[in-house]
Amino acid sequence: MIAQEMTQNITTSSHESGQAATETQQPDTAQHASTGSLTHTQALLQIPAAGIPGKATHNIETGIPGVSFDLHTMSQLITDEALADETLANGTATDQVVVLLARRQLRAAGELIAETRFNEPQNFAMRVLDTSLTRAAGDPKRAANRLRAMLTEFNGTTHEAILQQHLGMAYVESGDLRAAATRFRKALDLRIAQGTDDRLIDSSRRCLEALSARIATLAPTTAELPLVDEARPGNIDK
After folding, report:
1. pLDDT digits (tens, 9 = 90+) for 16-50
2. What is the dihedral of CA 124, 126, 131, 132, to 10 degrees?
3. Strand, helix or coil at 59?
């Protein structure tokens, strides 16, 4: 029996009343636009830093205190050590794993992922982070294989866009930029079609734009060709 999946529903904020918006276990979400707070699954994804005071526009917030997302490396990085320490001390297991991955503390991240998945084998967030751990350990091709397997499992669900996004990151690290761009485009299309939070739509758009700019710089002529899926002949996993 498959355990209940983590949902991606956004808890929308009500009007500006005299009360503060309810924000449980997400202390940093108050910094974002009032379109709503994010679930833990959504916090794994990149939220644009545009409009957030003090945040560089080339980085994207992860929704986790002390951690940002770098568009060039397509990976998380620590931007505030004190906040990251606080997240490790008081954050959820998901948030702690992201901090550990950003700090390259892979053994500790792996132990926490294994412990959580032992108790919750179908924890979607941890399954995705497990592939991030594989990427961080230097095996992006294996991470991509696992993400593709998850895509088969979650095809047509709200989780598909997350998997497409992370698959794009894995392809960037493996050097297949065109396949990565295809995946970011799929994530963008899915999020637009599903009416996902604007911040997540912008996240996929900015990843696609950043990658397209890199492709244009490396190969201006081929960048004009239509993007093709990574399953094209000569690029199938052996």
Report:
1. 334 433 333 333 333 333 334 444 445 455 444 33
2. 120
3. strand
Q: Indicate the DSSP class of residue 44.
A: T
Biggest alpha carbon distance in the chain? 61
Question: Domains in the chain, ordered, with CATH?
Answer: 38-222 (1.25.40.10)
Q: Which two tokens stand for residue 64?
A: 């986790």
Q: Which two tokens stand for residue 57?
A: 């526009």
Beta strands at 67-70 and 47-48: parallel, antiparallel or unpaired: unpaired
Distance of CA 134 to the CA centre of its chain: 14
For the entire predicted model, the pTM comes to 0.70
Residue 161, SS3 per DSSP: helix
Write out 4-18 in H/E/C secondary structure.
Answer: CCCCCCCECCCCCCC
Q: Which residue has the tokens 């991470």?
A: 143
Closest CA to 101 of 111, 90, 116: 111
